[in-house]
User: Which sequence fits this backbone?
C-alpha cells in the first residue's frame, strides 16, 4: 500500500515521501497515529496544502521575532539590587529577574529564552542575548545598579 508521510519517520523516510508499506502497518499504525495518509491524488494535494500553510506560519513567526528583536536591540532595562561591602550583591540577578524587568516594560519574554550563562553577581552593564526564534537572537542591555 502506498502512503504519503505527513511527518518524518526514522525507518520510512521524511515528510512528503511516498512510500510502499504493508497494509496492516498502514491501517493499524501509520494512519491512526497521523504519520501518513493513503497516497491518493486528493490526499497528496491535501498534504501539499498543509505544508504550504506550515511554511507560511513559520515565516510569520520569524517575521514577528525579527520585529521584536529590532525593538529589543534599542531597549535597556535597569535592575536595582541590594549590595553589601565592596559592591557585592546579596544573591544574584537571574534570567527570571531579566524576564520580569522586560515584562514590566511591555515585552513578555519567557525566562527560558534569556540566554544567561551564569547568574550576574556584580554591578555593571551587561549585554544579554535573548533567543526569540531558532534563527533570531536579540541582545538587551541590562544595567545592574545599587538599590
Assistant:
Amino acid at each position: 500500500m502506498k502512503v504519503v508521510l505527513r511527518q518524518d519517520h526514522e525507518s520510512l523516510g521524511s515528510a512528503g515521501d511516498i512510500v510502499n508499506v504493508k497494509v496492516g502497518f498502514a491501517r493499524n499504525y501509520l494512519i491512526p497515529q497521523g504519520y501518513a495518509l493513503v497516497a491518493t491524488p486528493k490526499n497528496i494535494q491535501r498534504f501539499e496544502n498543509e505544508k504550504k500553510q506550515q511554511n507560511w506560519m513559520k515565516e510569520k513567526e520569524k517575521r514577528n521575532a525579527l520585529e521584536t528583536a529590532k525593538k529589543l536591540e534599542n531597549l535597556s532595562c535597569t535592575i536595582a539590587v541590594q549590595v553589601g561591602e565592596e559592591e557585592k550583591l546579596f544573591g544574584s540577578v537571574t534570567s527570571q529577574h531579566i524576564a520580569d524587568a522586560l515584562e514590566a516594560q511591555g515585552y513578555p519574554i519567557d525566562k527560558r529564552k534569556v540566554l544567561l550563562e551564569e547568574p550576574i553577581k556584580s554591578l555593571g552593564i551587561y549585554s544579554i542575548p535573548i533567543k526569540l526564534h531558532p534563527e533570531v537572537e536579540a541582545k538587551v542591555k541590562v544595567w545592574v545598579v545599587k538599590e
